[in-house]
Design a protein that fits this description.
The complex is a heterodimer. Chain A starts with 23 loop residues before the first strand and ends with a helix. Chain A is built from 17 helices and 14 strands. In chain A, the strands form 3 sheets. In chain A, strands 1-12-11-10-13-14 form a 6-stranded parallel β-sheet, sandwiched between helices. Chain A has a 4-stranded parallel β-sheet with strand order 3-2-4-5, with helices on both faces. Chain A has a 4-stranded parallel β-sheet with strand order 7-6-8-9, with helices on both faces. By secondary structure, chain A is of the alpha/beta class. By secondary structure, chain B is an alpha/beta fold. In chain B, 46% of the residues lie in helices and 12% in strands. In chain B, helix 7 packs parallel to helix 10. Chain B is globular. The chains are: A alpha/beta, B alpha/beta. Chains A and B meet through helix 2, strand 3, helix 3, helix 4 and helix 5 of A and strand 1, helix 2, helix 3, helix 4 and helix 5 of B. Strand 3 of chain A pairs antiparallel with strand 1 of chain B, so a sheet runs across the interface.
Chain lengths: 432, 509
């Protein structure tokens, strides 16, 4: 990926941050989710979309385990489980898929967009889901749009499933011809309440032409063109950002909107790009910024000086470590990420203390050895590791909650800090 | 292809994990793509284990496929054995690795590993979790049981308890109850397996005089082999329910050549008296629909009819391997057997049978909730709340006590039902209000009014009111009260969005 595609940011204020630190690159067993998991929150956001995984019983079992009780509320996702006879011959497989899709769309006539989601088994047997989507799409047009992406474990890690899904939506976005009034595009799934807060702030700033990807209805995609400027609301959108740039849109370089500072920086990037007066900008964001700082202050006492390690999970690790280090005084010991996109996270890395160990990829056993040697006050990790580490006397914060909870923006900054403070407070209150 | 939202069973390698995790000193090297480690959290979260399952995954990715995934497997196996020093290692492939055909068994043979290797062939596209557990346990026993060890033939008889695994529904406490019965009979336990057994323990299985199979789904395959190889008879009665437990005691006593009365007299079973007490009269003829794994479903049907006086109006199981047993039981109860792993078919059958109580898995609990029917859980798959902290067996006489309480609890108690009929027109007892214990099913507008709706002449702006609605209903009342208190304190009216979030920041802690 080329660095030159991004407007260069101003020189880093803190020279010698962790931005140039060599990341520890590791290969080995990875204790992470696959991209299929993204379906669990994507289907809540896109209310007219259905996600059909073409995979094995394992894929269905994973979704069921990850979705918890949501599985029972007529969810808009399912698995077409490949069986022995499907493996016998490829032609048969496509006929079977057509049959399943037909049955599904008859049962759920309200569906407007159907995603055929590739899995490890479907990728390994080279089942051509792109072709299937094209064939079925032609048949069901214009009522139902049929798209395809891969959420397989061999290609995607956890949140990269959302990246693959949004990247599949980009070619479907209407074109905004050159010379149109500039538009802002916010990219990445946010809880509705957070999205509304941001849209309100942009409105108050005077940026009125704002689209979001994904939209609440997958059928109402925002337009994109050379006059589109986009802000990433999530760090894991590498492919989506490239696809948007491929359609002429330009990425605004900003911190991720976590905490008072991150959110301010993120909003400022848009304000600058849209020529908003600085005084006006400060006036509009001041109340939210102050509120965020007040809300964070409650947790600061408990978190300041505490040492924290992130195991790789979602790519949110670097910006969250930055927030905890700069706004709450925590000390990042190791910041592990499944994939480090230096282009998106460059400015985040600059703000991390030099002592933070950045690691990319995973060899879970060696990484756990480091956690045991470091003995951080708090370890952010997946649910497969959390209880075992607690049993070893290490306090943990399970990482998946950070993907499902509203944590972006000013008015969630206090909640975000609280997510990290709570396990430490709990450790202190228990007397058994 | 089969369209599926909910699956009653995981893939077969999850069954193998249940065996490996149950054991001590065993390790499982699983050839699997990145992401399959999700299964770890079933054990660490649902069963709340404080240790990671003893499973090493190769977690191959797309870029490895062009290269040597076989090498990746060998490296992972070597590292795992060096790090964990297991007494024995199981090797196998998950569904994706099955497709790339690396043959873990052959690869390990070539490696000359320092401990016994148990290769597993688990056809992921044909079989499921229970089959995987049974096959794995069978392979473990076949590979590790020492053929030179024979029954000691002493006065006190020795028995193996076979079948309990990790992630088994109440397996932990069932073992305690069955041990108690064997103790009372003077029968010693040679080995409980796979739960808590090491490969060294498995080697000594042959020392027992007979085997007790608690869960045919996971233990029968191995028991049959032990029957053939070591001539150990098998106790096949599953002691769930008072009647079945009594039969179990007599069967064990007969095999051990001892008097069954120490385990039968003063057995601690309260179910018979509870069931005879007048408050239980209203249970008579209640229509009950039963679905689960075959063993638990069949046992439940017998308890329902013979020990609680219910009428069984539906009986089914999701595990096809035990369809024959289930069909026999259904015939005995005079109902159509329902053998399916499609939860929509189960939902249809329940709706058609219109039962007054549903006994099933976690899935039936949700179906029953949707249909507003009382329900109790009798079988896997289950969520975290069915791995309780308290002792709650299903087996033995204490198990029967637990079953009485947990099945009757969701039903309206006799006195309560009587009052409901008497005061049918009273607002608190009306049908509209729903039964108190089915709180989730009660109509919302009754309970939510007052704390959720704005008072007349509201202090709130419409916009703030709409924003408040975005907060989940179960904390919305608190948010409203806090915000109003904050607004009053700070003299801020009307309450707009800024006040709402200022209050949120004020109360954040």
């Amino acid at each position: 990926m080329s660095i030159g595609a991004v407007p260069l940011s101003p020189a880093p204020a803190t020279v010698g941050g962790a931005d140039c630190a060599p990341a520890l690159r590791e290969r080995g067993q990875r204790e992470v989710f696959c991209g299929l998991t993204g379906i669990v929150w994507l289907h809540r956001k896109m209310q007219d979309a259905f996600f059909l995984v073409v995979g094995s019983r394992t894929c269905a079992h994973l979704l069921q385990s990850a979705a918890g009780v949501m599985i029972f509320a007529e969810p808009r996702f399912a698995t077409a489980i490949i069986e022995e006879r499907d493996l016998a011959g490829m032609a048969d497989c496509h006929e079977e898929l057509d049959r399943v899709v037909t049955r599904l769309l008859e049962r759920r006539p309200e569906i407007r967009t159907l995603f055929l989601v590739g899995s490890c088994p479907s990728e390994v047997i080279k089942l051509d889901l792109a072709k299937a989507a094209e064939r079925l799409g032609a048949h069901y047009a214009p009522q139902v749009k049929i798209l395809n992406y891969s959420g397989s474990g061999i290609e995607t890690t956890f949140t990269e499933g959302e990246d693959a899904c949004l990247a599949a939506l980009v070619p479907e976005m209407p074109a905004l011809p050159a010379g149109s009034p500039a538009e802002l595009l916010v990219v990445g799934t946010l809880p509705d309440v957070v999205e509304d807060q941001f849209l309100r702030l942009f409105g108050e700033l005077g940026i009125t032409r704002v689209g979001v990807l994904p939209a609440r209805n997958a059928a109402d995609l925002p337009a994109v063109g050379p006059d589109t400027r986009f802000l990433l609301a999530q760090p894991f959108l590498t492919e989506t950002a490239m696809a948007l740039e491929g359609r002429g849109a330009r990425q605004l370089d900003a911190l991720l909107p976590f905490g008072a500072e991150g959110t301010t920086d993120w909003l400022r990037a848009a304000a600058e790009a849209f020529g908003i007066d600085e005084m006006h900008f400060n006036r509009v964001i001041a109340p939210g910024r102050e509120r965020a700082k007040r809300a964070i202050a409650h947790s600061r006492e408990r978190l300041e000086g505490k040492r924290i390690t992130f195991l790789p999970d979602s790519q949110l690790e670097v910006p969250l470590a930055r927030f905890l280090a700069t706004e709450l005084g925590m000390v990042p010991v190791e910041v592990g990420t499944p994939y480090l996109n230096r282009r998106i996270l460059g400015r985040e890395l600059e703000l991390l203390p030099e002592t933070a160990r950045i690691s990319e990829g995973q060899h879970v056993e060696r990484q756990l050895d480091r956690v045991r040697a470091d003995r951080p006050d708090l370890t952010v990790c997946g649910l497969g590791l959390a209880n075992p580490l607690e049993a070893e006397g290490l306090s943990t914060k399970w990482a998946i909650e950070l993907v499902f909870s509203p944590i972006h923006g000013f008015d969630q900054a206090g909640d975000l800090a609280e997510l990290f403070a709570r396990p430490l407070r709990r450790r202190d209150v228990l007397r058994v | 292809m089969q369209l599926s939202v909910w699956t009653y069973e995981g893939p077969p390698h999850v069954g193998a994990m249940r065996v490996a995790t149950a054991m001590e000193g065993m390790h499982y090297v699983l050839h699997a793509p990145q992401g399959d480690t999700y299964a770890d959290l079933l054990f660490t979260m649902i069963e709340r284990r404080g240790k990671r399952p003893p499973v090493t995954y190769t977690t191959f990715q797309a870029r490895d496929l062009g290269k040597d995934t076989a090498q990746l497997f060998q490296d992972a196996a070597r590292d795992a054995i060096e790090r964990f020093q297991p007494q024995a290692v199981m090797v196998g492939a998950s569904c994706t690795a099955e497709l790339i055909q690396d043959d873990p068994a052959g690869l390990c043979e070539a490696m000359d590993l320092p401990c016994p290797v148990i290769p597993l062939e688990l056809p992921s596209y044909q079989r499921k979790e229970n089959w995987g557990a049974a096959e794995t346990f069978y392979q473990v026993v076949r590979h590790l049981a020492d053929p030179s060890i024979t029954p000691r033939g002493g006065q006190r008889k020795l028995a193996n308890i076979l079948g309990p695994t990790a992630l088994g529904f109440r397996h932990r406490d069932d073992v305690i109850e069955v041990r108690r019965i064997l103790d009372a009979l003077g029968v010693e336990v040679n080995c409980v397996a796979p739960l808590g057994a090491s490969p060294a323990d498995i080697a000594r299985l042959g020392a027992a005089d007979f085997n007790v199979v608690l869960y045919p789904e996971t233990g029968m395959e191995a028991a049959r082999w032990l029957e053939r190889t070591f001539r150990q008879p098998t106790v096949r009665t599953v002691p769930i329910g008072v009647g079945a437990t009594r039969e179990f005691v007599r069967e064990v006593a007969a095999l051990a050549g001892v008097d069954p009365s120490p385990a039968l007299d003063g057995d601690g079973s309260r179910l018979p008296w509870w069931s005879r007490s007048v408050d239980s009269t209203y249970l008579t003829g209640k229509r009950v629909f039963i679905f689960g794994d075959a063993t638990h479903a069949i046992a439940a049907a017998r308890i329902a009819r013979d020990e609680l006086g219910f009428e069984v109006c539906g009986l089914g199981c999701y595990n096809r391997e035990f369809a024959r047993e289930l069909r026999e039981a259904a015939a005995e109860h005079g109902v159509e057997p329902l053998i399916t792993d499609d939860h929509l078919a189960v939902e249809d059958a329940i709706a058609a049978a219109s039962p007054e109580l549903v006994l099933g898995t976690q899935m039936e609990r949700h179906i029953a909730k949707r249909l507003r029917l009382p329900c109790a859980v009798i079988s896997s798959p289950v969520h975290v709340q069915d791995f309780p902290a308290r002792h709650s067996p299903q087996m033995g006489f204490e198990g029967a006590n637990v079953i009485f309480d947990s099945w009757v609890h969701p039903l309206v108690m006799g006195l309560e039902e009587h009052l409901l009929t008497m005061f049918r027109e009273d607002f608190e007892f009306s049908d509209h209000a729903g039964a108190s214990h089915l709180h989730a099913g009660a109509p919302k507008e009754q309970t939510v009014t007052g704390q959720d709706e704005p008072a007349i002449g509201s202090l709130w702006t419409d916009e703030a009111e709409r924003e408040l609605k975005k907060i989940p209903f179960f904390v919305r009342g608190k948010a409203r009260r806090n915000t109003e208190a904050f607004a009053a304190e700070n003299d801020r009216a009307p309450i707009d969005i800024t006040t709402l979030y200022d209050a949120k920041a004020h109360y954040a802690r």
